[in-house]
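The protein record filed below.
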Amino acid sequence: MMAKGEIRFGDVVWVEFDPSVGHEYQSKRPAIVVQSDEQLKKTNLVTIIPLTSQKDNRMSDDILVEARKENNLMTDSVAKVYCVTSFDYARFEKVIGKINEEMKMKISNGGFVGIKYLIPILLIILIGLGVYLAILWQFGDRETGQICEAKEGRTIEGINSSIEDNAGGLYDFYHYVYINPKTSEVERIFFDQDGRFSNLKRLTNDGYYKYDLRLFPFDDSFRFGYFQNLHKADEDFDENDDKQREEYYKNYTSLIISPGYGSTPIEVYRGNDHTSSWKWEDIDHVTVYNNCGTCCRYYYLINIKTQKIEEEGHLEAEETACIEIH
Protein backbone atom coordinates (compact mmCIF):
# COMPACT_ATOMS: atom_id res chain seq x y z
CA MET A 1 0.00 0.00 0.00
CA MET A 2 1.30 3.41 -0.95
CA ALA A 3 0.74 6.69 0.87
CA LYS A 4 -0.27 10.17 -0.22
CA GLY A 5 2.71 12.04 -1.65
CA GLU A 6 4.35 8.93 -3.13
CA ILE A 7 2.44 9.11 -6.42
CA ARG A 8 2.71 11.88 -9.03
CA PHE A 9 1.16 12.73 -12.37
CA GLY A 10 2.63 10.57 -15.16
CA ASP A 11 3.74 7.73 -12.87
CA VAL A 12 3.29 4.19 -14.14
CA VAL A 13 1.96 2.31 -11.14
CA TRP A 14 1.20 -1.30 -10.29
CA VAL A 15 -2.46 -1.48 -9.25
CA GLU A 16 -4.66 -4.21 -7.75
CA PHE A 17 -7.98 -4.11 -9.68
CA ASP A 18 -9.58 -6.99 -7.78
CA PRO A 19 -12.23 -7.31 -6.54
CA SER A 20 -13.80 -6.31 -9.83
CA VAL A 21 -17.32 -6.62 -11.19
CA GLY A 22 -18.58 -7.68 -14.63
CA HIS A 23 -16.40 -6.36 -17.45
CA GLU A 24 -14.14 -4.25 -15.25
CA TYR A 25 -10.40 -4.86 -15.51
CA GLN A 26 -9.17 -7.62 -13.25
CA SER A 27 -6.05 -8.64 -11.32
CA LYS A 28 -2.86 -6.62 -10.93
CA ARG A 29 -1.86 -4.51 -13.92
CA PRO A 30 0.02 -1.30 -14.73
CA ALA A 31 -1.76 2.01 -15.07
CA ILE A 32 -0.89 5.65 -15.71
CA VAL A 33 -1.66 8.32 -13.12
CA VAL A 34 -3.56 11.09 -14.93
CA GLN A 35 -4.41 13.27 -11.93
CA SER A 36 -2.48 16.49 -11.44
CA ASP A 37 -0.05 16.78 -8.54
CA GLU A 38 -2.17 19.58 -7.08
CA GLN A 39 -5.25 17.36 -7.08
CA LEU A 40 -3.32 14.44 -5.60
CA LYS A 41 -2.48 16.59 -2.57
CA LYS A 42 -6.14 17.30 -1.87
CA THR A 43 -7.76 13.89 -2.28
CA ASN A 44 -7.39 10.33 -1.01
CA LEU A 45 -8.24 8.90 -4.43
CA VAL A 46 -5.91 8.51 -7.39
CA THR A 47 -7.27 8.75 -10.94
CA ILE A 48 -5.68 6.39 -13.42
CA ILE A 49 -5.98 5.00 -16.94
CA PRO A 50 -5.41 1.23 -17.06
CA LEU A 51 -2.90 -0.27 -19.48
CA THR A 52 -3.38 -3.46 -21.48
CA SER A 53 -1.04 -5.38 -23.74
CA GLN A 54 -3.96 -6.45 -25.95
CA LYS A 55 -3.71 -4.07 -28.88
CA ASP A 56 -6.13 -5.84 -31.24
CA ASN A 57 -9.21 -4.08 -29.85
CA ARG A 58 -7.64 -0.65 -29.74
CA MET A 59 -10.18 2.18 -30.09
CA SER A 60 -9.58 5.48 -31.85
CA ASP A 61 -9.17 7.41 -28.58
CA ASP A 62 -6.85 4.87 -26.96
CA ILE A 63 -3.19 5.88 -26.66
CA LEU A 64 -0.32 3.57 -27.59
CA VAL A 65 2.41 3.55 -24.94
CA GLU A 66 5.66 2.06 -26.24
CA ALA A 67 7.76 0.01 -23.82
CA ARG A 68 10.77 2.11 -22.82
CA LYS A 69 13.40 2.20 -20.11
CA GLU A 70 11.75 5.03 -18.19
CA ASN A 71 8.32 3.36 -17.98
CA ASN A 72 9.63 -0.17 -17.33
CA LEU A 73 6.82 -1.74 -19.34
CA MET A 74 7.64 -5.23 -20.62
CA THR A 75 5.74 -4.72 -23.88
CA ASP A 76 4.02 -2.00 -25.87
CA SER A 77 0.67 -1.29 -24.23
CA VAL A 78 -2.56 0.59 -24.82
CA ALA A 79 -3.87 3.22 -22.42
CA LYS A 80 -7.66 2.67 -22.29
CA VAL A 81 -8.81 6.30 -22.05
CA TYR A 82 -12.51 5.52 -21.59
CA CYS A 83 -11.76 3.18 -18.71
CA VAL A 84 -10.44 5.99 -16.54
CA THR A 85 -11.19 5.33 -12.88
CA SER A 86 -10.23 6.38 -9.37
CA PHE A 87 -8.90 4.14 -6.61
CA ASP A 88 -7.89 4.48 -2.98
CA TYR A 89 -4.19 4.35 -2.17
CA ALA A 90 -4.74 0.90 -0.68
CA ARG A 91 -4.91 -0.58 -4.19
CA PHE A 92 -1.52 0.79 -5.25
CA GLU A 93 1.49 -1.50 -4.78
CA LYS A 94 4.37 0.52 -6.19
CA VAL A 95 5.57 2.95 -8.86
CA ILE A 96 7.33 1.00 -11.60
CA GLY A 97 8.24 3.88 -13.91
CA LYS A 98 7.18 7.14 -15.54
CA ILE A 99 5.93 8.21 -18.94
CA ASN A 100 8.02 10.76 -20.83
CA GLU A 101 7.04 14.38 -21.51
CA GLU A 102 5.78 13.57 -24.98
CA MET A 103 3.43 10.95 -23.57
CA LYS A 104 2.33 13.35 -20.83
CA MET A 105 1.30 15.80 -23.52
CA LYS A 106 -0.66 13.10 -25.31
CA ILE A 107 -2.38 12.17 -22.08
CA SER A 108 -3.13 15.80 -21.24
CA ASN A 109 -4.07 17.07 -24.68
CA GLY A 110 -5.16 13.90 -26.40
CA GLY A 111 -6.34 11.58 -23.69
CA PHE A 112 -8.31 14.19 -21.83
CA VAL A 113 -9.83 15.46 -25.05
CA GLY A 114 -11.38 12.02 -24.99
CA ILE A 115 -12.04 12.19 -21.27
CA LYS A 116 -13.97 15.44 -21.68
CA TYR A 117 -16.64 13.37 -23.39
CA LEU A 118 -17.05 11.59 -20.08
CA ILE A 119 -18.53 14.76 -18.56
CA PRO A 120 -22.03 14.14 -20.01
CA ILE A 121 -21.75 10.52 -18.91
CA LEU A 122 -20.80 11.60 -15.40
CA LEU A 123 -23.75 14.00 -15.36
CA ILE A 124 -26.06 11.15 -16.36
CA ILE A 125 -24.56 9.03 -13.57
CA LEU A 126 -25.16 11.82 -11.04
CA ILE A 127 -28.75 12.24 -12.23
CA GLY A 128 -29.21 8.48 -12.00
CA LEU A 129 -27.82 8.53 -8.48
CA GLY A 130 -30.35 11.23 -7.58
CA VAL A 131 -33.16 9.09 -9.00
CA TYR A 132 -31.82 6.09 -7.09
CA LEU A 133 -31.86 8.02 -3.82
CA ALA A 134 -35.38 9.26 -4.54
CA ILE A 135 -36.54 5.70 -5.18
CA LEU A 136 -34.74 4.48 -2.07
CA TRP A 137 -36.48 7.16 0.00
CA GLN A 138 -39.87 6.22 -1.44
CA PHE A 139 -39.44 2.47 -1.20
CA GLY A 140 -38.00 2.23 2.30
CA ASP A 141 -35.69 -0.74 2.70
CA ARG A 142 -36.32 -2.33 -0.69
CA GLU A 143 -33.48 -2.62 -3.14
CA THR A 144 -33.53 -0.86 -6.47
CA GLY A 145 -32.63 -4.14 -8.10
CA GLN A 146 -36.12 -5.35 -7.26
CA ILE A 147 -37.58 -2.59 -9.36
CA CYS A 148 -35.45 -3.63 -12.29
CA GLU A 149 -36.97 -7.08 -12.08
CA ALA A 150 -40.33 -5.59 -13.04
CA LYS A 151 -39.21 -5.07 -16.63
CA GLU A 152 -38.17 -8.71 -16.87
CA GLY A 153 -41.61 -9.93 -15.86
CA ARG A 154 -40.67 -11.43 -12.52
CA THR A 155 -42.54 -11.04 -9.26
CA ILE A 156 -41.21 -8.15 -7.15
CA GLU A 157 -40.45 -9.80 -3.84
CA GLY A 158 -40.77 -7.63 -0.77
CA ILE A 159 -43.10 -5.00 -2.19
CA ASN A 160 -46.27 -6.96 -1.49
CA SER A 161 -46.07 -10.60 -0.56
CA SER A 162 -49.52 -11.10 -2.04
CA ILE A 163 -48.71 -9.82 -5.53
CA GLU A 164 -48.76 -12.80 -7.84
CA ASP A 165 -46.75 -13.93 -10.86
CA ASN A 166 -49.82 -13.73 -13.07
CA ALA A 167 -49.72 -9.94 -12.92
CA GLY A 168 -47.00 -10.07 -15.56
CA GLY A 169 -49.14 -8.49 -18.27
CA LEU A 170 -48.59 -5.06 -16.77
CA TYR A 171 -44.85 -5.34 -17.26
CA ASP A 172 -45.33 -4.95 -21.02
CA PHE A 173 -46.38 -1.36 -20.32
CA TYR A 174 -43.38 -0.71 -18.08
CA HIS A 175 -45.26 0.27 -14.98
CA TYR A 176 -46.04 -1.31 -11.67
CA VAL A 177 -48.47 -0.72 -8.83
CA TYR A 178 -47.53 -1.36 -5.22
CA ILE A 179 -48.21 -0.23 -1.65
CA ASN A 180 -45.44 1.93 -0.25
CA PRO A 181 -44.74 0.42 3.20
CA LYS A 182 -43.46 3.74 4.50
CA THR A 183 -46.61 5.73 3.69
CA SER A 184 -49.14 2.90 3.24
CA GLU A 185 -50.30 4.61 0.04
CA VAL A 186 -50.80 3.02 -3.38
CA GLU A 187 -48.23 4.22 -5.89
CA ARG A 188 -47.50 3.56 -9.53
CA ILE A 189 -43.97 3.47 -10.87
CA PHE A 190 -43.22 4.08 -14.55
CA PHE A 191 -40.31 2.95 -16.74
CA ASP A 192 -39.33 4.15 -20.19
CA GLN A 193 -38.94 1.84 -23.18
CA ASP A 194 -35.40 0.97 -22.13
CA GLY A 195 -36.53 -0.05 -18.66
CA ARG A 196 -35.12 3.00 -16.89
CA PHE A 197 -37.03 4.67 -14.07
CA SER A 198 -39.22 7.43 -15.49
CA ASN A 199 -41.81 8.65 -13.02
CA LEU A 200 -43.59 7.91 -9.79
CA LYS A 201 -47.26 8.72 -9.19
CA ARG A 202 -49.14 8.42 -5.89
CA LEU A 203 -52.63 7.02 -6.48
CA THR A 204 -53.94 7.42 -2.91
CA ASN A 205 -53.28 9.93 -0.18
CA ASP A 206 -55.76 9.33 2.62
CA GLY A 207 -53.59 8.05 5.46
CA TYR A 208 -55.42 4.74 5.94
CA TYR A 209 -53.47 1.49 6.31
CA LYS A 210 -53.61 -0.65 3.14
CA TYR A 211 -52.52 -4.21 2.49
CA ASP A 212 -53.03 -7.32 0.32
CA LEU A 213 -52.86 -5.52 -3.04
CA ARG A 214 -53.69 -7.79 -5.97
CA LEU A 215 -53.50 -7.05 -9.69
CA PHE A 216 -56.16 -8.40 -12.04
CA PRO A 217 -54.48 -11.50 -13.51
CA PHE A 218 -56.44 -12.13 -16.70
CA ASP A 219 -55.65 -9.13 -18.92
CA ASP A 220 -53.77 -5.81 -19.05
CA SER A 221 -56.73 -3.63 -18.06
CA PHE A 222 -54.90 -2.13 -15.07
CA ARG A 223 -57.43 -3.36 -12.52
CA PHE A 224 -56.26 -3.87 -8.97
CA GLY A 225 -57.66 -4.04 -5.47
CA TYR A 226 -56.56 -3.95 -1.86
CA PHE A 227 -57.82 -4.07 1.70
CA GLN A 228 -57.98 -0.76 3.55
CA ASN A 229 -58.51 -0.35 7.27
CA LEU A 230 -61.44 1.88 8.16
CA HIS A 231 -59.70 3.29 11.21
CA LYS A 232 -56.49 5.30 11.21
CA ALA A 233 -53.66 4.44 13.57
CA ASP A 234 -54.52 7.23 15.98
CA GLU A 235 -58.21 6.30 16.15
CA ASP A 236 -59.39 4.38 19.21
CA PHE A 237 -62.49 3.61 21.23
CA ASP A 238 -63.53 3.57 24.87
CA GLU A 239 -62.51 0.19 26.27
CA ASN A 240 -65.38 0.41 28.76
CA ASP A 241 -68.00 1.07 26.09
CA ASP A 242 -69.14 -2.27 24.63
CA LYS A 243 -71.14 -0.57 21.88
CA GLN A 244 -68.12 1.41 20.68
CA ARG A 245 -65.98 -1.72 20.77
CA GLU A 246 -68.53 -3.69 18.74
CA GLU A 247 -68.90 -0.94 16.16
CA TYR A 248 -65.11 -0.52 15.89
CA TYR A 249 -64.47 -4.15 15.03
CA LYS A 250 -67.68 -4.64 13.02
CA ASN A 251 -66.61 -2.01 10.49
CA TYR A 252 -62.91 -2.79 10.48
CA THR A 253 -61.75 -3.15 6.88
CA SER A 254 -62.99 -2.62 3.34
CA LEU A 255 -62.08 -4.04 -0.05
CA ILE A 256 -61.27 -1.29 -2.55
CA ILE A 257 -61.28 -2.04 -6.28
CA SER A 258 -59.86 0.19 -9.03
CA PRO A 259 -61.77 -0.89 -12.17
CA GLY A 260 -59.24 0.39 -14.72
CA TYR A 261 -57.39 3.39 -16.18
CA GLY A 262 -58.82 6.71 -15.02
CA SER A 263 -61.50 5.03 -12.90
CA THR A 264 -62.35 6.07 -9.37
CA PRO A 265 -61.65 3.30 -6.83
CA ILE A 266 -64.81 1.92 -5.26
CA GLU A 267 -65.55 0.09 -2.03
CA VAL A 268 -67.15 -3.25 -2.89
CA TYR A 269 -67.12 -4.88 0.55
CA ARG A 270 -66.96 -3.81 4.17
CA GLY A 271 -66.15 -6.39 6.82
CA ASN A 272 -65.14 -7.01 10.42
CA ASP A 273 -61.80 -7.88 11.95
CA HIS A 274 -62.21 -11.53 10.90
CA THR A 275 -61.84 -10.65 7.21
CA SER A 276 -58.77 -12.60 6.13
CA SER A 277 -58.14 -12.55 2.37
CA TRP A 278 -59.62 -12.09 -1.09
CA LYS A 279 -59.09 -13.02 -4.72
CA TRP A 280 -60.21 -12.16 -8.24
CA GLU A 281 -62.76 -14.52 -9.82
CA ASP A 282 -63.31 -12.70 -13.13
CA ILE A 283 -63.51 -9.15 -14.44
CA ASP A 284 -66.76 -8.49 -12.53
CA HIS A 285 -66.40 -10.61 -9.40
CA VAL A 286 -64.20 -11.06 -6.35
CA THR A 287 -64.39 -13.45 -3.42
CA VAL A 288 -63.72 -12.33 0.15
CA TYR A 289 -62.91 -14.83 2.91
CA ASN A 290 -63.65 -14.51 6.62
CA ASN A 291 -62.34 -16.58 9.50
CA CYS A 292 -65.22 -18.06 11.45
CA GLY A 293 -63.31 -20.32 13.82
CA THR A 294 -60.75 -23.12 13.80
CA CYS A 295 -60.62 -24.63 10.28
CA CYS A 296 -63.70 -22.58 9.40
CA ARG A 297 -63.83 -20.24 6.42
CA TYR A 298 -66.81 -18.26 5.18
CA TYR A 299 -66.86 -16.73 1.70
CA TYR A 300 -68.72 -13.94 -0.10
CA LEU A 301 -68.90 -13.76 -3.91
CA ILE A 302 -69.29 -10.07 -4.71
CA ASN A 303 -70.33 -8.32 -7.91
CA ILE A 304 -67.95 -5.38 -8.42
CA LYS A 305 -70.39 -3.35 -10.52
CA THR A 306 -73.33 -3.61 -8.11
CA GLN A 307 -71.32 -4.11 -4.89
CA LYS A 308 -73.83 -6.85 -4.05
CA ILE A 309 -73.17 -10.26 -2.53
CA GLU A 310 -74.30 -12.84 -5.10
CA GLU A 311 -73.32 -15.96 -3.19
CA GLU A 312 -72.07 -16.83 0.26
CA GLY A 313 -71.48 -19.84 2.48
CA HIS A 314 -69.04 -22.03 4.34
CA LEU A 315 -66.22 -23.69 2.46
CA GLU A 316 -65.92 -27.43 2.43
CA ALA A 317 -63.16 -28.90 4.58
CA GLU A 318 -60.88 -29.62 1.63
CA GLU A 319 -61.40 -26.10 0.25
CA THR A 320 -60.67 -24.59 3.66
CA ALA A 321 -57.26 -26.20 3.72
CA CYS A 322 -56.38 -24.52 0.43
CA ILE A 323 -57.15 -20.93 1.44
CA GLU A 324 -54.12 -18.83 2.20
CA ILE A 325 -54.58 -16.78 5.37
CA HIS A 326 -52.77 -13.43 5.52
Remarks:
- Residues 14 and 30 are 5 Å apart (CA to CA).
- The longest helix spans residues 118-139.
- Confidence is low (pLDDT under 50) at residues 140-174, 320-326.
- The helical segments are 37-42, 101-115, 118-139, 144-151, 242-250, 317-320.
